[in-house]
Amino acid sequence: MSSYHALSEQEATAYARRLPDFFAPDAELSCREIGDGNLNLVFHIQDQGSGKSVILKQALPYAKVVGESWPLTLDRARIESEALAVQGRLCPELTVRLIAYEPELALTVMEDLSDHVIMRRGLIEGRRYPHFAEHISEFLARTLFFTSDLGMNQQEKKIQTGRFINPELCKITEDLIFDDPYTDSENNSFDEAIRDEVERIWQDSALHLEVMLLRQKFLTEGQALLHGDLHTGSVFVTETSTKVIDPEFAYYGPMGFDVGAIIANLLLNYAAQTGWKEGADLADYRSYLLQTATSIWEQFHVKFSSLWDEQLVDRMAATPGYKEHYMKQLLQDTVGFAGCKMVRRIIGLSHVADIDTIPDASRKEKAQRLALAIGKTLIKRNRSLASIDEVLDIVQTQWSAIEQGK
Ligand SMILES: Nc1ncnc2c1ncn2[C@@H]1O[C@H](COP(=O)(O)OP(=O)(O)O)[C@@H](O)[C@H]1O
Ligand SMILES: CSC[C@H]1O[C@H](OP(=O)(O)O)[C@H](O)[C@@H]1O
Questions:
Q1: I want to staple 151 with a disulfide (CB 3.0 to 4.6 A). Which of 145, 176, 222, 349 is the partner?
Q2: Is the Cβ atom of 245 under 6 angstroms away from ligand 1?
Q3: For substrate, which residues are the binding ones (predicted)?
Q4: Domains of the chain by range and CATH?
């Protein structure tokens, strides 16, 4: 195999044609580069005759969204493929199927999920996914429990931790989520219309303390193998199916970071809805989003607790009271990380299309302010929180305040 270089569509097609037992030798293959993420090339290759298709994802030696001025390790492709292998073993129905990995080209070959839609797009279009909470709570419970000291041999876990050391992508998160939004960083990108609120956040030392406590957890707590970037752009859905993709940020970190990430992105869409919907339609969709967010935690809690009761490998972890303590801490971490993920998507380098594509400037500003208000409050309240219902109260209180122009 040739040494590393970024593939052209023609080279990607030639590589796909050589996949063993995949395309017929004389297949008429088409290829399009379809990557809409921040980091990598994604090639969609299809046999024009049979319709059979495949996805080739290639890491670039830099962050695509910034360019060659931001060098980035190709090892992230190995991390992604190995994380997909773990997730595929634990949740085969909820993970994109890994077909092959080519280290020389930092190339991951996987099934084509074009019959699904990226969840972020579906939510922007106002669609509903009635099984999503059930599916993603299962993915979270199983991937987090069985890669932790609770569900796997602690010596094997230490070996696995070494496989998933991911310093460069963790630094992106440490900077973009737990640092830049709280200072006048050159990485930041926000609308001047909300500068007053952003500058209040830069001065809010009580908020910074809570962010630092969460940053400490991200830096030091290797509870389980995380997806590391589980936003609604990392999930493919239909009304009956959920498939997780893109775990290149995987590493051993605090469980609440994954649970909080998906809840945060539902709440970002919740804030965005003020720019998309009105009246009863708005109220009804807000209710759907909030119900989904709380149900993710509730179902995760039930499933994780059941795994704890039935699959625990650590005798001392069965000590009465420990599970309750663990789950309360996990909820608080989830809420705090969710708040951090919301704030960074408004102030930081990477935004979300849910809010950024709102056509009306004043409604977009309102959505941005609502997202910041919710995010800040979740961060500030996380260590005193005892129930997911309190998140509901926080979200609805902030909604009312923004609606009343406070
Ligand atoms: N398995 C797949 N099937 C179909 N399309 C895919 C698949 N994986 C990625 N894509 C497309 O490529 C886009 C970027 O993929 P992603 O893995 O998120 O890249 P990045 O790591 O650059 O964010 C997705 O939003 C989706 O449109
Ligand atoms: C410079 S990476 C910025 C941002 O992009 C990643 O998301 P994705 O790879 O899905 O586009 C991740 O959320 C990073 O924080």
A1: 145
A2: yes
A3: 229, 344
A4: 9-111 (3.30.200.20), 117-403 (3.90.1200.10)
